[in-house]
């Protein structure tokens, strides 16, 4: 099938490139332990960037339910793994997402699903935060959305500044969350 062919082709081109990279890094790519490594890395990296081929709005739209609930809905402690666009090293942590419905709710599992889609791209934490917020706002048209992300960046731990214990927190919001009291309610509930 053409789609399989092109996926296999992409994997083999990526693997060929990784072979060159591993060799340039000083390794013997013909030693036994490394024989399949270029292909494994090719597949792993395609998984870690699989968010480019998925449409997060479509995921939300598939599970929109008319409902009159007007209070805050919070899905907290959503684990995510992403890659920083500067070093292509992992950053990971937890996303907390809240929205206040305006006639429609979405399937709860769809919120972690859109976090995964935006995470599996080359990212900066700030943009990841804003993209999740925008996606919910544009698709659900709720009274407000707020997203808080707490993360650790491998590029600040394994290399560079080498700070093992620092975490970065980002947040973004719309609508009702412009009110400090609404933000406080959310922050208190995710503590
Ligand atoms: N704002 C932001 N910066 C990030 C994120 N991930 C990595 N960075 C930063 O991207 C910056 C890139 O800075 P450069 O000076 O070009 O790169 P560098 O020489 O490798 O910098 P150091 O990491 O300080 O060694 C670094 O300060 C990283 O900490 C992120 O999600 N958001
Ligand atoms: Zn980085």
Can you tell me about this structure?
- The chain is α+β, with helices and mostly antiparallel strands and 191 residues long.
- The protein folds into 2 domains: 4-50, GTP Cyclohydrolase I, Chain A, domain 1, CATH 1.10.286; 56-190, GTP Cyclohydrolase I, domain 2 (2-Layer Sandwich).
- It contains 7 helices and 7 strands.
- It has helices at residues 2-24, 37-48, 56-61, 110-119, 125-140, 154-157, 180-190, and strands spanning 64-66, 73-84, 90-100, 104-106, 122-123, 144-153, 168-173.
- The strands form 2 sheets. The protein has a 5-stranded mixed sheet. It has a two-stranded antiparallel sheet with strand order 1-4.
- 26% of the residues are buried.
- The model has no long low-confidence stretch (mean pLDDT 96).
- This is GTP cyclohydrolase 1.
- Its EC number is 3.5.4.16.
- It holds the Pfam family GTP_cyclohydroI.
- Residues 16-190 form the GTP cyclohydrolase I domain.
- Zn(2+) binds at residues 84, 87, 155.
Secondary-structure map:
Blueprint: H1 2-24, H2 37-48, H3 56-61, E1 64-66, E2 73-84, E3 90-100, E4 104-106, H4 110-119, E5 122-123, H5 125-140, E6 144-153, H6 154-157, E7 168-173, H7 180-190
Parallel strand pairs: 2-5
Antiparallel strand pairs: 1-4, 2-3, 3-6, 6-7
Helix pairs in contact: 1-2, 4-5
């Amino acid at each position: 099938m053409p789609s399989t062919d092109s996926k296999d082709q992409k994997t083999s081109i990526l693997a060929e490139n990784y072979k060159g990279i591993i060799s340039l890094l000083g390794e013997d790519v013909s030693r036994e332990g490394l024989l399949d490594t270029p292909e494994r890395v090719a597949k792993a990296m395609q998984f870690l960037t699989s968010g480019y081929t998925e449409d997060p709005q479509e995921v939300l739209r598939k599970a929109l339910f008319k409902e009159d609930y007007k209070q805050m809905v919070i899905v907290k402690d959503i684990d995510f793994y992403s890659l920083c666009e500067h070093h292509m090293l992992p950053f990971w942590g937890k996303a907390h997402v809240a929205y206040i419905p305006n006639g429609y709710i979405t399937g709860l599992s769809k919120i972690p699903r859109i976090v995964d889609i935006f995470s599996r791209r080359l990212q900066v934490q700030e943009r990841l935060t804003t993209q999740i917020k925008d996606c919910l706002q544009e698709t659900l048209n709720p009274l407000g959305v707020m997203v808080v992300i707490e993360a650790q960046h491998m590029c600040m731990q394994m290399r560079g500044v080498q700070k093992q214990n620092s975490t970065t927190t980002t947040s973004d919001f719309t609508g009702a969350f412009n009110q400090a009291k609404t933000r406080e309610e959310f922050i208190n509930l995710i503590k």
